[in-house]
Model the fold of this input.
Amino acid sequence: MEKVAIVTGAGSGIGAATAKLLAKQNMAVAVLDLNEQSAMQIAEQIEWEGGRAFALRCDVGKKEDVEQAISITEKNWDTPLVLINNAGVGGPFHRVDQVSDDEWDWIINTNLKSVFLFTRNLLPKMKEAGFGRIVNVASIQGLLGSAHSSTYVASKHGMIGYTKTIAAEWGRYGITCNAICPGYVNSQLGIRPEDISDYYQRVMDKSPVQRVADPIEVASLIAHLVGEFGGYINGASYTIDGGISAHVGITSNLTE
Ligand code: NAD
Done:
């Protein structure tokens, strides 16, 4: 039977690539994004390619929006048993003493509280169905500190701890929950190789593979985790960063 999936932040980047890939894997996909127009474009593309999708505007940090999105998805199709918590914001780069209350709340609500809101609602329904697949899109900044990104780092570390706990609590009901930790991805939030900058050059100097990821490379890891052969992977956090976090990177640079 066709499974119903929710992908958040699916209007662009990793989320859009994931929504398209899951639709190709015979899932009906609710394409959620704060930006309704981009969500609609992705849903239309999926339908045009023969898949099933619909778009919804949803601010994932807001309880009412999350509850409404789940309820519309259930009414349109069925209980979503696949959940990709992907929507995320980076925020400005600055030191902790320059972070405002509003900025902290915005990043934590979007990146972390959203995961709680979706899972609190859907886990009991997944339990009833005896099946659930959840992937939380964290970051290598969920594994390592990063100067001038304290709130983002805190949100992504929180996601990984939360992922492990959900895995422990709900695994017995046929539900798996995993996190993925991308490095640098060619997206709005990530790095566009065409915008050659000092920052891009520093990333290249640290990256063993000397490039950023294409969103489809990250989407295919997500698709594996929620796909036919992903069922024994639970509570894991997969880095997908071209090897950036695998080395210290100060003893030598990576050029010959
Ligand atoms: P992106 O900016 O292309 O996509 C993020 C999407 O989330 C956008 O469509 C945006 O409209 C949506 N969004 C933002 N706030 C939202 C909200 N409150 N409610 C609903 N949707 C909202 O960026 P991306 O790179 O595809 O990012 C996807 C995820 O990957 C994020 O969680 C990000 O932290 C993570 N990530 C990205 C990178 C990278 O280099 N791009 C690296 C590590 C982790």
